[in-house]
Amino acid sequence: MSDAHGHSHAPANFNRAFAVGIVLNLLFVAIESFYGWRVNSLALLADAGHNLSDVAGLVLAWGGVLAIKLRPNARHTYGWKRATILAAFANALLLLVAMGGLAWEAIGRLLSSELTVQEQGITIMVVAGVGIVINTATALLFMRGSEGDLNIRGAFMHMAADALVSAGVVVAGALSLWMGWNWLDPVASLLIAAVILVGTWGLFRQSLHMLFDGVPDSVDPVAVRDYLAAVPGVSRVHDLHIWAMGTSDIAMTTVLVMPQGQAEDALLEDITEHMHELFEITHVTIQVVKRPFTKPCGDLPPEQHDSTPATAEKHAHEHDHSH
């Protein structure tokens, strides 16, 4: 049996980025709330509320990053890596709730008779313009880690969404000042909420999928099975499981049926290395048996159980010639 732990390529240290982002956004929330209340701008107040939810989101994401550094113990053998998935899910949920609240308030404002021409358009534009600078700068701090880690991607999306909201507020303020369109402020809020909801849905779906031990989107389970089935001596791949331990760590367990008996350590090490290189699976556990004696608790659909000759031959070729 092989139980190999690949080296995790977790994102670099983002402590400084989180600290700077939280402080900048707290200051901006205070400024935007004050001027939004002063000029009675729903767009500014909504943007301030969204920024406040982003501060909470950054705190959650930072907590997730710190949690994965806690050492595993006898009661938590995988450590606390799943905290990053929980943080990403909470971030997505927070964004969806915040945008739902924004849309509800905007609809209420449209249906009310309290709409007034925004004579303070310049104030709105200046405050929101500051928001564009702050949110864009904060988003850039997380950009380099947004592709490889769902938790960091959640923080990045929060900041990028804020920059978009602030840009929409600037446009709304300019048109209200120029054209006197008193309905534009809540309409702009609705459009911004719709755009962010569409962008956030993918993060919500993916993090929820990972919370329930779904195979990460970056891994093709059929390709993994085909590769394992093409390993010399393997007659069947039994009880294959692939799941995310955290937003940057993927685990796999499987039973390889090898009628000729236990494989050499060198072969198991080679398989482990290929799982890491080809599929970015960092934690690989392989059991080798002459015949399966356990019932698989989960598997691929029946029509995908057997690897196709073409796919198996392809992966076998990669296996034999990769070094």
Summarize the structure.
With 323 residues, this protein is α+β, with helices and mostly antiparallel strands. Helices cover 61% and strands 10% of the residues. The protein starts with a strand and ends with a helix.
As a percent range, the share of strand residues is: 5-15%
From N to C, what is the helix and strand string?
EHHHHHHHEEHEH
Please give the share of residues in helix: 55-70%
CATH-scheme architecture of the largest domain: Up-down Bundle
| The level-1 CATH class of the largest domain | Mainly Alpha
In order across it, which strands form the biggest sheet? Answer: 1-4-3-2
Largest sheet: 4 strands, mixed
| Average pLDDT number | 77
Radius of gyration: 25 Å
Any idea how many domains? 2
Count of discrete alpha- or pi-helical segments spanning 4 or more residues: 9
- Extract low-pLDDT stretches: 4-11, 302-323
Distance between the termini: 23 Å
The count of β-strands is: 4
CATH homologous superfamily descriptor of the largest domain:
Cation efflux protein transmembrane domain
CATH fold name of the largest domain: Alpha-lytic protease prodomain-like
Query: What overall geometry do the principal axes of the alpha carbons give?
Result: elongated
Structural class: alpha+beta
